[in-house]
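Design a sequence for this backbone.
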């Protein structure tokens, strides 16, 4: 997706209220280097209280009338329908069991309407994405990565990409406990300690214990 579309989506999903928000992406489908690639074409932001409502089975939902409008748009243009929402956290994300059950109930019917064009869902966290894509043959496909194209090229994955990350031998005990991916998540964490005066910062055991395991920056205020 383009940087512009991603920034617009990110601002909608993460406005700072800590809540979940919804959207729909219409995407083209192409084959590049033998791989199936989705190309985000258009973003529809579901308006809270109108197109994004309290769910009957899950926390939030897009009402049937809104989904129908978006599905008809996609079918008319032969574009892939992607339902989008967000979870909290940073660096890793996954669908909940409720999310997956919703896909299993709804996506077969959407595929019938789409006449051979795939449908799917994306879930975002800060710096992470996961995808569940359904094709007309009934198969499900896990999204491997999303690439944001702009002044710089940015990759989003469901879990931290360890390629080139390396594991510092100082954190061997944590790697044994959390695994390399878990340590990668910790390595991206940031800690803020509120109410810790500058004079006491260096001698505070809590500050040392919190900041040492994650190999990251700790700030006091």
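Sequence:
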């Amino acid at each position: 997706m383009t940087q512009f579309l991603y920034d617009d989506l990110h601002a909608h999903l993460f406005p700072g209220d800590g809540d979940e928000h919804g959207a729909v992406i219409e995407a083209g489908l192409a084959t590049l280097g033998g791989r199936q690639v989705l190309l985000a074409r258009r973003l529809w932001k579901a308006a809270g209280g109108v197109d994004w409502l309290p769910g009957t089975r899950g926390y939030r939902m897009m009402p049937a009338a809104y989904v129908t409008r978006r599905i008809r748009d996609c079918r008319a243009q032969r574009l892939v329908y992607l339902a989008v929402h967000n979870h909290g956290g940073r660096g890793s994300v996954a669908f909940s069991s409720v999310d997956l059950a919703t896909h299993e109930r709804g996506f077969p019917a959407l595929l019938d309407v789409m006449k051979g064009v795939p449908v799917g869902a994306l879930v975002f966290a800060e710096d992470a994405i996961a995808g569940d894509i359904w094709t007309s043959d009934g198969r499900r496909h896990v999204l491997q990565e999303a690439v944001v194209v702009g002044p710089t090229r940015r990759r989003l994955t469901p879990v931290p990409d360890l390629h080139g990350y390396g594991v510092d031998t100082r954190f061997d005990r944590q790697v044994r406990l959390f695994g390399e991916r878990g340590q990668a998540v910790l390595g991206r964490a940031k800690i803020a300690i509120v109410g810790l005066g500058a004079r006491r910062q260096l001698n505070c055991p809590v500050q040392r214990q919190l900041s040492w395991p994650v190999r990251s920056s700790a700030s006091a205020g």
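The CA atoms of residues 113 and 176 lie 49 Å apart.
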